[in-house]
Structure formats: C-alpha cells, structure tokens
Amino acid sequence: MSNERTSGFSLNGLLLVLSGPSGVGKTSIVHELLQRFDGVFSVSATTRQAGPGEVDGRDYQFITESQFQNMINEDRFLEYAQVFSRSWYGSPREPIEAALQNSRLAILDIDVQGAEIVRAKYPQMYGVFVLAPSEEELLHRLRLRGREDEAAIQRRFAASTKEIARARIGKTYDDFVVNDDLARATDTICTLVAKRMGVTVPYSI
Q1: Which one, of 116, 1, 93, lies nearest residue 40 by Cα?
Q2: What is the dotted CATH code of the domain comprising 14-197?
C-alpha cells in the first residue's frame, strides 16, 4: 500500500522520472544528466541490508523498519512500496521538492509502480522509460553484470518484461528511448529534458 496524498506545492523546476529494466544503462544516464544540468538525484530509502560495495547515503539510505514507518507517518515519501513482500523502498520527499522549488532538475530512478504514483501526485512530471534494443539484448546485459546466478537472472528478466509491458500500455511515460548506444541515448534524453526545461542543451565538459 502506498501513500498517494497529493502535494499542494507548484513545480518550478522539472521532475524527471527515469525508469527501465535492470541492466539497461539508467545509472550511467542519470550520472550524465546530473553533471550536465546540475541536477539533484533522489537517493531511495530502504529497509534491506547494504550489499557488497554499497555506501549508505550514496547508493541508498539504509534504515530500519521503524525508521521507515516513522517516515511514512510523517508523510516524508513521494512514493513507497514493499518489494517481493520483503524490504521496503521509498523516495524521500524533501530533497526533491527543495530542488523543484529552486527551479532545478530533480531525478527519480524508480520502477513503474512508483512512477504511476508520482504521476498521480505530480501530473507535470516528465517520464522517460529506457529500453534495451531487444529482449535478447536485455537478457545478455543482465548476464554480463555477473551479479546473480542464472535462476535469479531469469526471475529478474521475467519481471522486467512485465514492467516493460505495463509501461507501454499506461500513460505514465512521455517518451521511450532505446539504449542501443549509451552516448546517443544519453544525448537524446538530455535534449528532451532541455526542451522541457526551456534551456539550451548543456554538454558534458
């Protein structure tokens, strides 16, 4: 169950919701967007334990279930959900709203369910879904990451294909961008974001 109270503040910046299956290149695209637009990224809070190499405050905010529940009670999430009936994940409201009120680009990297909730709250958001060139290529990229065994990869791949189908039939996303070349896909998304913000496309130094 997710909190869907509508916020009353007006958006002066741009809220970009970027979604796509694991392994599609979202992290690299987000890093470039942040650099070019001096944007703000929402670091999700989660109740799961940190994985190898993950840093608190950079990859996720790792908090306890009681802390997470307190944030729910205090209406401090834009969206939140329990994943696979285990760990909770949520997007803290404060840094995103502060960025928007200062006319900056704010970026959420969340799944389709979360994006649907944010769209209901903030119809002005800009939604972009990143796709692999094909399902075969997506499966190949998941295997290349080398983070999971084959059974886990197949489960993630099945979930990803369902997410893609859900994204395509809904009205949450404004644009779909195929990442067949990372630099080209990044430039395409930067151009789309700049157009939405009414600014000249900034280029990476």
Answers
A1: 93
A2: 3.40.50.300
